[in-house]
Amino acid sequence: MAEEVLSQSEIDSLLSALSTGEMDAEELKAEDHEKKVRVYDFKRALRFSKDQIRSLSRIHENFARLLTTYFSAQLRTYVSISVASVDQLPYEEFIRSIPTMTILNIFSVPPLDGRILLETNPNIAYAMLDRVLGGKGSSVNKVENLTEIETTIMTQLFENSLENYQEAWGSIIDIDPVLEELEVNPQFLQMVSPNETVVVVSLNTSIGEASGMINICIPHVVLEPIIPKLSVHYWMQNKQPKESNPLELEALSKTVKQAIVDVRAILGESDLSIEEFLKLDQNDVIRLDQSIDDPMKLRIDEEEKFYIQPGKLKNKLAVQVLNEYQGGAEYDE
């Protein structure tokens, strides 16, 4: 059982009570020897460790960032999405906690078994719909009267967002989310047994002036095959650098060597004002920033790399590399 940590003020109060006789040290020892009992509710069986919950939280924090970018682009307005909480509870308790009429997106995640539920508060869902249809993003809760056009628009909006969910899980497993149906009444939805443990990820969502929650319900049966991968040990193992394959390095080196770069021989440079530039005329002389005796610089992709001198090769202009360029240093022969 976890030990209780006392603050400094609590420690001072305890010592004061012992010194004044208000509290007896022998009584404290007796209490310490008594059996401590903690109530355990078998209906709320905790099947995920804190470590695994933290891993799920990291995955969905990434998903929240991706979803923010996606909805911002689709709705062309300010969108903020962040993870509010990650809890495990019975499926029945989750169903009771959401509105009686809401937007429920049910999707499968092959190769994992089972289905995941993405519940969107009507305030958020209708703000999205209003923005897609060209409105200001106002919210009107009339979920029970969704038209076919509204249902189709919402379905497409959430179906396209599942690519972000696939990307968020990419470090653990390669899933292929598929939206199966859109429902509005949670009472008609029976994904798992009422006492089945589910993980509920709640996302704080703001779209313009509308705000609400997006809840992701993941049954234990979906996560069961990959539970070992949700541990810190697995994450740390994946961060270990892999040994380089010599053949891959050789192929990469060969490809890089074939890359085309822009090479320029810089005779010199000069700064002119706009007024001086406009007054330039035939036979005018522009003074460069280096002496005629100084070597030129060879610039590769806008970065100086070598000192060079001009010349000819087979009746063509050419340059000869003298030395490697040292930034800020004068050239020494």
TrEMBL record:
Highest taxon in the source lineage: Bacteria
Q: Where is this chain's protein located in or outside the cell?
A: Bacterial flagellum basal body; Cell membrane
Q: Which CDD domains match?
A: FliM
Specify the protein's topology with respect to the membrane. Peripheral membrane protein
Give an example GO biological process.
bacterial-type flagellum-dependent swarming motility
Pfam families in UniProt: FliM, FliMN_C
Q: Does the keyword Membrane apply?
A: yes
One MF term from GO for this chain?
cytoskeletal motor activity
Transmembrane helix among the record's keywords?
Answer: no
Q: Which keywords does UniProt give here?
A: Bacterial flagellum, Cell membrane, Cell projection, Chemotaxis, Cilium, Flagellar rotation, Flagellum, Membrane
Gene Ontology CC terms, in alphabetical order:
bacterial-type flagellum basal body; plasma membrane
The UniProt record lists the Flagellar motor switch protein FliN-like C-terminal domain at 256-323
Q: Main localisation, per the record?
A: other
- Which family would the database say this protein is a member of? Belongs to the FliM family.
This protein's name:
Flagellar motor switch protein FliM
In which organism is this protein found?
Answer: Halobacillus andaensis
Q: Which gene holds the coding sequence for this protein?
A: fliM
